[in-house]
Amino acid sequence: MEFRLATMQDLPQLKAMFQKIIQRMDEMQISIWDDIYPCEFFEADIKHGQLYILLDGAVIYSAFALCDENSGENHVKWADRHAKALYLDRLGVNVDYSRRGIGGLMLKRATQAAKALGAEYLRLFVVDVNGPARRLYARHGFTQVSGVYDEMIDETLVLHEYGYEMKL
Questions:
Q1: Helix, strand counts (H, E) of the chain
Q2: Which residues of 41-60 are buried (b: 16+ CB within 10 A; e: fewer)?
């Protein structure tokens, strides 16, 4: 398997993969992603050199973004608010390869990449109703911090997000 930064050539396959992830999440009644998020952010992620993929041959197994900031970062209580941190965003695993440990492998790769970029912490936000993701992060050493970030999507939808972090 190859782990690398995504390129614009990967974009069509990434979007197709995430559409299947969104469909699976909707079936599980975890309707937090849609036609806009996360797919419309991938092009900017690629341009900023922050979208990573895991692939085998031509098939993308998983992807995530490592970002310098997050809109919720000041809404929860981090262990050290002033430490250099990167934010893990848009982690997704190809549904054709789910339940094979790829999510855990990608978390390991994310911690390695964040360390290489000089981060002291790897942080993320996860919506309260996404139990599978919350369990994955806890199993792999992330600690939930106190506080909740209420992300207002529109006047009818507010996502309640918990912050998680890992000291690197």
A1: 4, 7
A2: ebeebbeeebbbbbbeeeeb
Total-model pTM: 0.94
Using CA atoms, how far apart are residues 74 and 13, in angstroms rounded to an integer? 34
Residue indicated by tokens 């997704």 = 92
pLDDT of 25:
92
Domains of the chain: 2-167 (3.40.630.30)
pLDDT at position 154 is 79
DSSP-H helix ranges across 40-141:
42-47, 102-116, 131-139
Q: How far apart are CA 98 and CA 84, in angstroms?
A: 32
Low-confidence ranges of the chain (pLDDT < 50): none
| Distance from C-alpha of 71 to C-alpha of 49, rounded to nearest angstrom | 19
